[in-house]
């Protein structure tokens, strides 16, 4: 029996991967480890156990919490403090550091003990802010878009690739994830651990508990659905900030392939996102939300930028597509429709969390 540990397993990404994996491979023994810190994650525990997935209430910061776990064949490291503002808004960065860096080390040591393959979900936020903010771009009617002519490697109108320069500050969140990537390389080289890093853009889909600083797609749709206020923050309040979006089921398809072809991608790092085809600005997303929900809400304009914000990020998927054949399939409007249907189906449970 194939055994899989998913850390952050009651979170949005972890639980989504676990449920898809169990649906496609019913014989797999899947264990989800989570500290249930994020509001709303407790709703996923019943979904997991109902599907025959083992849930363990634990914390990757604690080495002792791994002692009672059985050896597994795969570790999917999906846990994180995912806020770009963590440690930058007056709070201390302790939880961020202990989870995103030292917690990853605990996961790696467990993988070594288990002789398990290790797949790490990193982030596009490992790329430096100032470098991204000074890229050449075109200001179109409803969005910012990257130009083909650039002064840096690893960027074109298709987006940002893996060889984009890494010099510069990137937020404490991005730094902890990049530091983890470097440590993973060492474990791959000197411990013989099979490893893989996916630098994900914005992930989204039903069951994400979106907040201002993380999970913007669900937040935007939920505020429309529950008829609450929103704001275009920064960049003169234009709402032209642009991101690519990746439905978590598209991410699952890639990870499914990677798990079953680890020998082909061992030691690799991939940029993984929606790409230009599955991208949107806040302005454009507002229009789609209005169409799908049938509701129009007030949107304020705040001209000042937030710390660590960027005007645009789009993933260049060229490398991962060439190596695996994978491409995202679920478009922006379908994502909005699916999340709206989820809000309708679970309105009472979600109102206090997302409204």
TrEMBL record:
Top-rank taxon: Bacteria
Transmembrane segments: none
InterPro entries recorded: Epimerase_deHydtase, NAD(P)-bd_dom_sf
Residue ranges of domain NAD-dependent epimerase/dehydratase in the record: 4-273
Family: Belongs to the NAD(P)-dependent epimerase/dehydratase family.
Protein name: 3-beta hydroxysteroid dehydrogenase
């Amino acid at each position: 029996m194939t055994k899989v540990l998913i850390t952050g397993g009651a979170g949005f990404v972890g639980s989504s991967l676990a449920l898809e994996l169990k649906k496609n491979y019913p014989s797999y023994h899947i264990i989800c480890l989570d500290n249930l810190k994020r509001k709303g994650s407790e709703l996923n525990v019943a979904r997991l156990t109902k599907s025959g997935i083992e849930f363990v209430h634990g914390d990757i910061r604690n080495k002792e919490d791994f002692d009672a776990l059985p050896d597994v064949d795969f570790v999917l490291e999906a846990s994180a403090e995912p806020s770009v503002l963590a440690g930058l808004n007056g709070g201390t960065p302790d939880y961020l550091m202990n989870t995103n860096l030292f917690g990853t080390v605990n996961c790696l040591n467990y993988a070594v003990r288990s002789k398990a393959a290790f797949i790490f979900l990193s982030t596009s936020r490992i790329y430096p802010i100032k470098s991204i903010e000074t890229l050449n771009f075109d200001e179109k009617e409803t969005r910012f878009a990257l130009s083909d002519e650039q002064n840096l490697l690893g960027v074109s109108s298709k987006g940002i690739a893996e060889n984009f320069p890494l010099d510069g500050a990137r937020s404490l969140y991005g730094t902890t994830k990049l530091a983890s990537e470097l440590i993973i390389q060492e474990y791959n080289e000197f411990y013989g651990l099979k490893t893989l890093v996916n630098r994900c853009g914005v992930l989204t889909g039903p069951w994400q508990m979106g907040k201002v600083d993380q999970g913007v797609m669900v937040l935007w749709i939920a505020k429309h659905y529950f008829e609450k206020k929103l704001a275009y923050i920064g960049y003169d309040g234009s709402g032209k900030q642009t991101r690519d979006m990746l439905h978590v089921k598209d991410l699952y398809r890639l990870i499914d392939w990677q798990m079953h072809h680890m020998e082909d991608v061992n030691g690799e790092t991939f940029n993984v996102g929606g790409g230009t085809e599955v991208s949107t600005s806040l302005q454009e997303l507002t229009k789609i939300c209005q169409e799908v929900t049938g509701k129009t809400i007030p949107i304020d304009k705040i001209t000042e930028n937030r710390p660590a914000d960027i005007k645009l990020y789009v993933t260049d998927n060229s490398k991962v597509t060439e190596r695996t054949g994978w491409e995202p399939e679920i478009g922006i409007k379908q994502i909005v429709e699916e999340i709206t249907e989820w809000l309708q189906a679970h309105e009472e449970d979600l109102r206090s969390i997302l409204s």
